[in-house]
Hints:
Blueprint: H1 3-15, H2 25-36, E1 39-45, E2 56-61, E3 64-70, H3 75-91, E4 96-97, H4 100-105, E5 116-122, H5 128-145, H6 158-176
Parallel strand pairs: 1-3
Antiparallel strand pairs: 2-3, 2-5, 4-5
Helix pairs in contact: 1-5, 3-5
Amino acid sequence: MDDRQLRRYCGEVVRRVDxxxxxxxxxxxxxxxxxxxRAISLVPMALPVRQGSPCGLWVATDDVDxxxxxxxxxxxxxxxxxxxxxxxxxxxxxxxxxxxxxxAQLLMPTLDPALVRSVLGRTVYTSDEERAAELVASLLPxxxxxxxxxxxxxxxxxxxxxxxxxxxxxxERNARRI
Length: 178
């Protein structure tokens, strides 16, 4: 999928979401829980801060989706991490099957590792799924302010156009690294 198709697809996904106004990841999770019939639990954690370590994880059990996120960062960054993981949920991405030793490393002593069925971690933005989740994470708060149009629409504001340009450049740089 090229960048234009990716932007169009992610914009369509975000437009179908009842994004709360003003944007709040907690309120969005409440709405998604109601719509999906599945609990979403946000878990702030002191995740390792080193190259290749995720700053957010999606951990799925049979009944609950846990979104773990780095608590040792700014509020805006925490919300973006959670929005990124929500992006994976909205896009229907599949998580990797979980292994018992990986679950033990998540530092979730109250969660029985046998209950975890999958884990999706965020470390780099090189795959199409990561690029899509990152784009959705950026579009969700914008949807709260107004309907998000495809970037090629002439009626977007100059600020929106600058943001879209910035995202395009970032996605293109990361795509060239693949």
